[in-house]
Amino acid sequence: MAIVNNLAYVHPEARLADDVVVDAFVYIDKDVVIDSGCHIHSHASVLAGARIGKNNTIYEAAIIAATPQDFRWKGENSLVVIGDNNKIREQVIINRSIHEGGKTVIGNNSFIMAQSHIGHDSIIGDYCVVGNSVKIAGDVRIDNYTILSSHALVHENCHIGPWVLIKGGCRVNGNVPPFVVMAHNPISYYGVNAYVLKKGKKSEAIIDDIAKCYRHVYQNSASVFNALRRIREDIDPSPERDAVIAFIEGHDKKIAALPLVDVE
Questions:
Q1: How many CA atoms lie within 13 A of 27 on its CB side?
Q2: Exposed, middle or buried: residue 72 (CB in 10 Å: 0-12, 13-18, 19+)?
Q3: pTM: predicted TM-score of the whole model, two decimal places
Q4: How many Å apart are CA 139 and CA 6, to the nearest integer?
Q5: Who's near 149: CB < 8 A, 6+ residues apart?
Q6: pLDDT of residue 81
Q7: What is the pLDDT of residues 154-165, one digit of tens each?
């Protein structure tokens, strides 16, 4: 049976694994599932629709599966699905989906820092860091190994690729391709995320090829169409090169921080 402080409230229909620890003044609603190894700290609220995996720590005053801040939501039953081994710090708010049966998703091994907000139907990948007071709107996708520094703002329907660093205070209003650093407001290309890529065991040659890709995209006066053609001509195929091409083409060549109007 879960270890529940007598000053906490756990709805009788909530399902908690036997070793879940629930501190004083926690509120756990009905239609909640919390798997083994989790610790819910004081004053946190886990509301209806939360599905929480193994070994997660949810800190003081966080709210999981808050109802969506969206006029389109009319009371539909929906979810927040959280994977394993995440740390969700103080006063984080994660909204559930606005769609019947839909879900907001947090992957595995991510660190969601204090006072950040993740909107409805967003998807956060594995090994991500969401910094203090980051605001993520609805229908955002953030891929694996991406870092959003403190006070970054991500607009609705944006997709941020893997291995990206968004610097503090940056406003993301478009799709951010893989392996880059973005900064400032308005958002601008700041280089390749070389330090983190090295930590991820990417070779110097691969990092250099990634940099060449983005010189064609961001630092030459060419359309995106011609930049992609030059990438294919100048840079040997690799999973990383192909990921850059696939991301840009998959978003109809509409990517963030691009000052040029794309023409073929």
A1: 11
A2: exposed
A3: 0.95
A4: 38
A5: 131, 134, 165, 166, 167, 168, 169, 170
A6: 98
A7: 999 999 999 999
Question: Quick one: CA dihedral 187, 190, 196, 202, positive or negative?
Answer: positive
pLDDT of residue 129: 98
pLDDT less than 70: residues of the chain: 259-264
Alpha-carbon gap, residue 96 to 102, rounded angstroms: 8
Give every strand in the sheet of 153-154, ordered side by side: 9-10, 27-28, 45-46, 63-66, 93-95, 117-118, 135-136, 153-154, 171-172
Structure tokens at 74: 């009319």
Beta pairing class for 180-183 and 188-192 = antiparallel
- Read off the pLDDT of residues 60-96 as tens digits, 9 standing for 90 and up: 999 999 999 999 999 999 999 999 999 999 999 999 9
In whole angstroms, give the CA distance from residue 133 to residue 241.
Answer: 33
Q: Which residues on adjacent β-strands are paired with residue 16?
A: 34
Which residues on neighbouring strands pair with residue 165, listed in sequence order? 147, 181
Please calculate the CA angle 234-235-238 and round it to the nearest 5 degrees. 160
Give φ, ψ of 154 to 5 degrees. -120, 120
For the chain, how many residues are written?
264
